[in-house]
């Protein structure tokens, strides 16, 4: 139930990937996703009904929530529940995860049903939002299997595999799958979500201080594409499809 | 104090732009930014002091807030104050505006001082986040002038002009500066923030349902670059620099 | 679409009034109300349905919301959304606006329908609550016209014109329509809402430090009555009724 | 320690008043204020320090809080703590109480010290806000005595007695000190706060549906003045000053 | 309507108990409960309907709310409404009160009906949570009587009398019914809720710093049992049953 | 680093225990605590400073936070952050964990330093609050070791080992260490926290519907004592002390 890819310290390689399915017993899909020292519990939960704005539309919904355990980080992070609200960063990340996974599922083939993707980071060493998408897809895949087996849906609503990674420019070097230390000193930080067929679901590239050129963009996108194909291989091995 | 660009209904052109400075009297910079039917009051306010996380770092800060007036939209939008919190969308937009404008200002040349960019949308017809950046930059420019005149800063901290626009794919056509109706039916929606020298500060391109190819990306970026040069011209005319 | 009244610096006169209709395009009524340097966007929005406490009562409702743009004031005001709640002052003002306008509309002639009056202050130089009532009435008038034209209501539910102004005692002098500076140094500050027929809807007169006599009260009410008749003239000119 | 005034069912008379001092043992002033079936625990608490906006101004502050016990009303009222915020009505009332009592105390004679007036309604039968002022003044008086005895202040900061009552028009009749049933059916409802010397601290007169004339106003103010003199007598008897 | 038990200063005796029924006029049950200087208004309110999680289960519900008046304590306590939420302590106490009273009522004999027990502490000198249970039971008893008389329920749902008290170890001495001063210096503090037939509904015994032995536990439970029988006698006298 | 105890299906035995230290890398103490199917990540974080109420008291503090991952439960639980506040149950549990662990640590030997115990339940099958105490103690032990090694404290502030378990009455049978199914149908549910020397830190025993006798209490406490000694053995094996 577990796929690994051997570690490689070259900055243009992915960090070691490990995808452990069946991590907890109640969720319809439950994955412990690791990339380097980043570790995230991704679960998929299937519920009847859809949010208010979709009632009567005869389609399903997929939404994501993201959270850091307080001591997943170097210094303890205050819980959102203690502050009484989620930070802007948290909301932005969960919107990205939801949007990315909705792009590869046919919501109309799900009837009025909601899939919750919960991504709880237990150790954060950079790339938590992209690892949430990569791991979340595997949990989603398992929950779709569950729905097929139970006869909840009659045809598979998944359209394609998808995975995500980060690329950036650190000390004038292009870097794939940035760890926290690299991310902190990056001049440019870009998250890329792609499908197995090589199409973009989302590109988010922000210059921290020094804006980047068109040529930088091209090189980063090539690197991201390679990385994402490697991640999709890892997803398939974990799912015992290859 | 006002710059306009003649209207053009071709979908690959910008909508008519109008930048009216000195719109309200108390703010250090105050602009009514219009692009098509989208109208936003952008103000820049200079305050002493910096947020907690920067105290003692001997640098300044720039932050943005964004809000829709309830009846800026087709149907009335509930106020954030009535809900008791800002939506995820609002937080995501204000983070983008802040990040984009911080990329063209030298925070270390500002001492411990904060510039607030407030973007209050009075009429929303698509592209409010990018128009907030374009108009917000002009308000920022005026507030920097104020600081120079008052001797609050000794050298100009602005590094370059910046503006932003949206591009997308609607009915298999590439479209620049999407209005609300185009945006609602777009397959791909991309926001691009660039500097006058043609570098990217931010690219955010999301596929709503159909992922997009590399060639789509290239064509959208070209369109965005043309649009942004047009917007920077409009900013300069409003500032009476050309 | 615009009514002005020539400026007059005498403290017992109204400040220059300007009422600009059709200010934004989506609302059923939309007015830019100015009195002196105070400027407020007042919109009226018509929605089906009524609040919970009126369901099944076969009558309509009118409610108001009031907000200051952060830089409508000399120093930047924190947004209610950032604090997570509205201040006591804001709630008190929106209750006053709602109560005042409900007094001149026959709610039973509206069926189960709600009119929202949104008053967003873009520049605050005193008298924002009374100017919200005066401008809000014009937006309400236009929204009622819209409902009549669309056949939403069969008879006009408006009973009378209404407007509001402030009066006070500043340095032992009676003052009409106080600007911010006068208001700050006033010993007594009174808001008066009257109908065209000279009846009171609301009187709110508070001594800041020195309680006032019955004779002071009488003189302030006379001054208010004159001012309100001037404001109702301005409303009618803006509505092209005179 | 208790003052009563014999009951009288004439609508132009006060309801029976009862002011019981020393109701609870910890507060510096603690009063059970009754007017008819309205019963309120009013306490005055003296604390060192002033709110943020007054620090370093070398003056004191007085502020009020008001709350209904859930079952003080005919039907159970939800607690503000359960809703997570106070209603607009509550905030408006506590601002009125604070403003009224601040008008009769010399804040500069108190050093940097805050007096909290807490008004907790245990039985609500109309007129709770005015009874809070009348009873709150007695608690305040006792807390000032405490400060004098303890040498916390050297001279008495109280300037005058004050009390408050309501007047209104019910079924075309002028009514003093409205109970809940009268208040519910009143066409006009006015709260008046006066000093012993006959000056107004606050007048708040709102027409529920039918605006009122100048002559109505005059008659209501006369009735209020009589009532308030009766209440000040009751305060003095409770304080054993007459 | 009132039951007292003569005071006794021995630390192994209850403090003087006073239970005054009919304290306020609107609630179906309304009691002023005093034990020593602790005074609590306990009301029982009967409402139609049950919370969401019980709808359609054909049974009733009983829930409790607890609150301190700000100046019920030595120093003024901030209102939960001002903080926007209830403290952990408050929530823990109201859960205990609700649980304890639900244990002696047959919810299935109440149809879909909710009884709210509101416990508002007006003077707090230790033991407020246990006095809330003892006094709340009497209010509950009266509200059940009301339901019987009105024919709202056909058979009495109460199963047994219940009361509660505290016991503890202070300076190596076993103490019953701790006042605030004793509670503050106690090494062990235990709350015990028992029925008339001598069974436990709840035991909560916490060591503040020094864990306690089994023999300590036994002695404290004996003391509690005696105290609770005394309290049940006081309840019955107040209810005029003995 | 891991201690297990062989499974035993007898209801008077503990479920299999597994304590895995060093589970995440940033926290000063980090444990994956399992008892049966209940799994909790317990971390201990050491921070400089103490909460406001202890400043200047020259002592340390220990506090706990507790949270369920949304899909740790059979049905998905809404996040506290989505509701904007923690439930009463959560607050009650974290107060219990904090109180229990503070009873075995000498806060005065820690200087002004705070230890946070975070208990994040990843799989909930009953007994999460007691397992949080048992696992939290091991994380605390490791964080104290860290402070000793770093020279942050000079002497070991831990006074004794402590662990906790639940006991109850299910179908007239005494049961130790209840799983969710047993807990749901229990007539009595009791949590017991004891030290190695056999003293009680906390007893919380609640009857769900049927109050329990003194003899029931005695039998449950014996069972609890046996279980806790077994858990302390498991803690020591995990810490490699036996």
UniProtKB/TrEMBL annotation, chains A, B, C, D, E, F:
Entry-linked Pfam families: RNase_PH, RNase_PH_C
Function: Phosphorolytic 3'-5' exoribonuclease that plays an important role in tRNA 3'-end maturation. Removes nucleotide residues following the 3'-CCA terminus of tRNAs; can also add nucleotides to the ends of RNA molecules by using nucleoside diphosphates as substrates, but this may not be physiologically important. Probably plays a role in initiation of 16S rRNA degradation (leading to ribosome degradation) during starvation.
Gene Ontology annotations of biological process type: rRNA 3'-end processing; rRNA catabolic process; tRNA processing
CDD domains linked: RNase_PH_bact
InterPro entries noted in UniProt: ExoRNase_PH_dom1 (IPR001247), ExoRNase_PH_dom2 (IPR015847), ExoRNase_PH_dom2_sf (IPR036345), PNPase/RNase_PH_dom_sf (IPR027408), Ribosomal_Su5_D2-typ_SF (IPR020568), RNase_PH (IPR050080), RNase_PH_bac-type (IPR002381), RNase_PH_CS (IPR018336)
EC number: 2.7.7.56
tRNA processing listed as a keyword: yes
Organism superkingdom: Bacteria
Protein name: Ribonuclease PH
Domain (Exoribonuclease phosphorolytic): residue spans on this chain: 14-143, 162-226
Family (UniProt): Belongs to the RNase PH family.
Keyword RNA-binding part of the UniProt annotation: yes
Gene3D superfamilies referenced in this protein's UniProt entry, alphabetically: GHMP Kinase, N-terminal domain
Binding sites annotated in the UniProt record for phosphate: 89, 127-129
Gene: rph
Species the sequence originates in: Halarsenatibacter silvermanii
EC category name: transferase
